[in-house]
Structures are given as structure tokens and as C-alpha cells.
Amino acid sequence: MGSASASSLPTSAGAGENLVLILDFGSQYTQLITRRVRQLGVLSLCVSVTAPLSSLTGFRPRAVILSGGPHSVHASGAPSFPAGFLDFAADAGAHVLGVCYGMQLLVQSLGGAVEAGERQEYGDMEVETTAPSSALYGESVVGIRQSVWMSHGDEVVRLPQGFEVVARSVQGAIAAIEHREKRFYGLQYHPEVTHSTQGKETLRRFLFDVCGIKADWKIQDVLDEEIKTIKSMVGTDEHVICALSGGVDSTVAATLVHNAIGDRLHCVFVDNGLLRYKEKERVMSTFNSDLHLPVTCIDASEQFLSKLKGVKDPEMKRKIVGKEFIAVFDEFAHMLEQQTGKRPEYLVQGTLYPDVIESFPPPGSGMTHSHTIKSHHNVGGLPEDMKLKLIEPLKLLFKDEVRKLGSILNIPESFLKRHPFPGPGLAVRIPSGDVTEGNALEILRQADEIYVQAIRDAGLYDTIWQAFAVLLPVETVGVQGDQRTYGYPVTLRAITSEDGMTADWYYFERKFLADVSNRICNNVRGVNRVCVDITSKPPATVEWE
Fold it and tell me: Where, by residue number, does ATP bind (predicted)?
């Protein structure tokens, strides 16, 4: 499930005419390139270089962007193009833009030379255009400077035949190259990050002026095409199950499918014992009063927790949760078969594009798509013998795009602004811990409720992308009521983000943190220490497991 196939693309989005492929070489900014292209109204898809060239069969991209990456092109095992990629791009008539590592790999593959730079360039740097005219920068641009974001130790020292240098850094390193006849272009810096002040304009020129792409990709197109696809996929007498988590993704997916097939959609909300404080009551009330979706609530908490007893390995916890969900859905499907005389064939999931992208094996790791990597709760946690076929109408969308889709579907804005919640629930918020040990889950629920409610009371909820508490399964010493205590530490996590692919930690005022810490320690029995997670993504992920 690591990359989308050509057949899965929405045809009305102009995939056959105006598609941009992003080849991912492992840069922390790869998903930003994908986002920036979409923000310009062009459909872009991220494909891992660990995938074989056959996975691109059927694509006819107008442009291919080669991402940056953490490797040196000289390092053993450094990622390269899939075999035959350059011929594929030429046959497709695609323009190729290499960014940072992507530019160096392009140069080396075409006969140029890349060497370790005498002076490495990291962070803010000025570059100056050296050519009087440039496809990437325009006409009469010689001598114009701009601030960009550099991140490289190697540098291009000799160009392949036919290439032209169009910009250099203030230190003299080659910063931009072009071969217009062969449709090859390169930027040594990252145009996708906001630190590159003219980066978005450079991408705009590349897409529209150089490649001749039209900005014809809209969320409404996705909605229309997905409804058409679902209607053609699901027979007129077939039934579909939707797993509702109470989050934005599954709710938007359910509403979309309900629009396509009506009451042949049967939604199920599973209480797996890993939900937040009063989550079941709150979610079911919203489903009934605001969304008018047909929802059956199943209490399977004992089933899930009995299987999780004694399990501490995070990957195993995810696999168990995924397997038990499917067991519940299979049982629900059997019940529906008895009621309707027709066994449901499909399961709807709110899988998003970041779920798919983050399930790629890392480039340069030597792993392929057949290797086991961190499984996402909507991608890697499902058993191979699952009887239900998947419908994933959101799998090409980022979170902010899903919210726009939800708005078109008239889902209340207050619901669309809910913070994300992981499929395995609180199981991944007790890292390397047995969730059934003692009253760990109840402690975490209470601490999380105090924290999130304080954020709401402070008017910060809509400003923050996601906020939650994490319970560390260790005991720390404290003093409460003049007595020595041993209790759990709770860590508070809050981030800001556009799409969840990259994130910054949210800066709270000292008084807010002091109040929350006091309230947790005074009201949640078993907690005697509160910490704050001030790590961005990368290097950390949003969740702790």
C-alpha cells in the first residue's frame, strides 16, 4: 500500500495530463513538496524510490520532482532511481527537477561529477542568478539574489554535457542548473520550505511556465470521482461496513460513502477499551444529533484488553488492535447477513495519504515494500486473511484537504476541527507499557481530559493541531501530603502543523503549564510528575509509539 497505482487516480483531476510525481529519496521535506504542488492546484503523488519502476506503469506525469535526502551519492547503498527511470521520464515527455540530493543524483547519473564540498552549506544562504535568462527564474535576472534554505555537504563540481549553471551560492557552489532541451533542471536548495523566500514562485514557474501544467485539481473533483468510483465498485444489492472512530477521517469517509450508496452503509463504533474520557458517550451523541449516520455501538473492551494483557512491544500492540478490530467487523458482518440476507463485502477506512507515505520503507535502508516497517493503524495493522475488501476514499488526501472535503459534505465545523486520535487509541500513549497493568488507562484518561479541557478553556484548541497526554510506564519518587510517593509521570504533547507530516511543538505560557501540572497532580491519583514534550517532527513523530 506504499504508493498509489495509476488506476486509483481520480480521472477528473487531470491525472493523465497534469500529474506531478515526487520521487522520495528520504528527505524530511518530501511531503512538503507534495503539499506545495497541491497548493498550486496541481495533483501530486509521492512515490518511494524503493518501489520498482513497474509500480509507475500507467502514469504519464508532466513533471517528476526528485526529492532531497540524507545520503551522499557516493555512500554505499545510497538510494538511486528505479532501473530505467530516465528512459521512463523521457518516454513520458516529463520535465525532471532534482532538489538537493535529487539534483546531485541527476548530475552523477548523466555523467557529471559530485564531490565533498570544501565548505558545507546548511541553513539560510543567499544565491545569485548568473544567467541573463533562465527557465526557472525568468528573463533579465542576472545578479538577482534571494535567500534560500541549503542542506548539503556534497556539491556539483562538473556538469553533464549540455547543462548550464543559472545560479550560484554566495560561496560559489552551483545552486541551480538547467538543460532545457532534455527537460532536466536542478536546485541545490529546498524551494518547498518557507525559509526559501522565492521558493514557491520558483515551483510555480517550473510547473506552469516550464512544464505547461494547468491548475485543474480541486477537492470537489475528488468528491465527485470518489462517489462515482464507489457506486461502480459496490453492487446495487451489496452492503458496506464503515469503522467509525469518532475522528474526522472516518467520519468524512463514512459521510462520503453514505452519499454514494445510502442506507446500504452500516457504520459501527467499537469501544475497544482504549478510548479517551467519555469518548463513547460524546461521539455517539454527535453521530445521532448532528451527522444522522446509521451507527451501531459495540462494546468490545474486554475482548481487546484481554488480548493486550502483558504486551509491551508497540508493533505487537498495533497488530493486536488491528486484528481484533477485524474480528469485531467480521462478527458484525455476520449479524448483518442474518438481518439483510446479504453478507457485507466491503469495509470503509479513513486512511489518509500521510498514512500511506509513512508506511514506505526508508530509502537507502536496503528495505523494499515487502519488508516489515512501522505499521500504520490504517495501513499495516490489518491481517492478511481479512475477509472484507477495503474502500479507502481519502487515501490520496492530506488532513487539511479532508477537512475541506468534510465542509463540502456539510459536516459541522466543530466536528471537523477535532484533534486527530490514533486508531490504536490509548494503547500507543502508554509507550512500551502494558495498558492493562493497574489502572494505567484510567489515569491517562483523567490526565488527558484535564489537559485538553484546559486548552479549550484557554481558547487554544483550534490553534493547536493536536494535543494529548502520554503516561510513562515507570514510577518516579515524589512528595505528596508530607509523604514519599511513587507515581507515574505524565508528559504533555501539543503541536502545530498544516498536515501532520511536519510539526512544531506549541509554546504554552508558563502559567498555563503550571496550572495544568497542579491540577493533574492534585486530581489524578497515581501521578506525581508532569513533563512537557518540546520536540518537533522531525526528529520525533507526533505520537510516542
Answer: 245-251
